[in-house]
């Protein structure tokens, strides 16, 4: 199956949209929350009943109710949203931190489910499934040659823990078809992408969300890095759209001393709740750096703001998104729910970093484009701050509220003017699909290579660069790689390494070229 066509506006907005979708999860969840009855709700109930019982044509009133709820929430703030009942499971799973399934990374290639890579030590890996395998049947249900919705596909591969599914598999590398039983098991959804040493004393942790399991993963990462020599830490929150407020607070507690303020929330009634650090932190001393960018939002900003305001570490990067609202999930009784803004949060210095939201919907979320036009992505002087929103950190440094966390050290966008599209492409999923398809042509050829041999194959000539350029052109996007050949080759090589070897090696390659990492290491 062909990868969907890529259009520049979508490319530019994609990571913001995905990040802010996760950012809506910053919530103090109360399972028992209910909506009380009042005359206004009775009015809506009567209207729906009249349409149900008296309207001349048959109408799906469920869809009318959905439209009504969405219409009401659109009048509020951009983060108060309705979640339809068919979306609730996926939403909850994303933040739960695991699911029960067969444990594969896959995509639909030419209308067939192909395995990019089985999750290490997961059910499929244990059953002998390999990269490049085609899954033709799940039990007797055909998975190829017809259009299958993601919902249907997931329903066939997921199931109860301990249940079995018989997979019919075609292995292209040996040209054989076989059947294998896979026992479904709990598969983790990682919040910590990687925890590794950049040099002999600098640990690096990349966090992609703040879910139920994130603090546990984060704590283990810190302890492990310390055990192998890390005395300094870089926490990467770039493109992290957020998550649970309480999880962010627990993670901050790893770095702050007992009784230092982490965050404060104030609700409609003026009730103020403060969260303080405890004695349990595992990295209360040692150099700390937090990386942020324009897509770092919500819980990411809670963490960065607490570190900055307590003068515990240095914030490096570009101004964060600016989401200072707290949501609570409330069930509507039919399996659907709303995520309603119930409070604002404030950093320890007292600042709200929520940006104005009079301009809602697409314009509100399309922060990258606005900052690109203003020049803020390239020049720190283009960051607009209001003197009226001036606050002071614990040691008296000036910080600003009203629209994100402004970094202590500014690092401009990596791509030069006119080359933004190339960088967006290289950080998108299309690179993964391209590399998979190249490996799929002759997996035996690549499997024999060492990393050095692979590097020479990919980067010493323009062969794969040219093929990649044609590949994305077929998907509707034209790029000029003339000034970025080396960078594109590096990204391609890194993805080949990820699929053939491991995640850690991928990040070692990418981070060696990373502008923010270079800035941090220069200042040491």
UniProtKB/TrEMBL annotation:
The keyword Protease applies. Gene3D superfamilies: 2-enoyl-CoA Hydratase, Chain A, domain 1 (3.90.226.10), 2.30.42.10, 3.30.750.44. It comes from the Bacteria. InterPro entries: ClpP/crotonase-like_dom_sf, PDZ, PDZ_sf, Peptidase_S41A, Tail-specific_protease. Residues 175-356 form the Tail specific protease domain. The chain crosses the membrane at residues 6-30. Pfam families: PDZ_2, Peptidase_S41. Residues 98-173 form the PDZ domain. Keywords: Hydrolase, Membrane, Protease, Serine protease, Transmembrane, Transmembrane helix. SMART domains: PDZ, TSPc. Belongs to the peptidase S41A family. PANTHER family: CARBOXY-TERMINAL PROCESSING PROTEASE CTPA, TAIL-SPECIFIC PROTEASE. This is S41 family peptidase. It comes from Flavobacterium ponti.
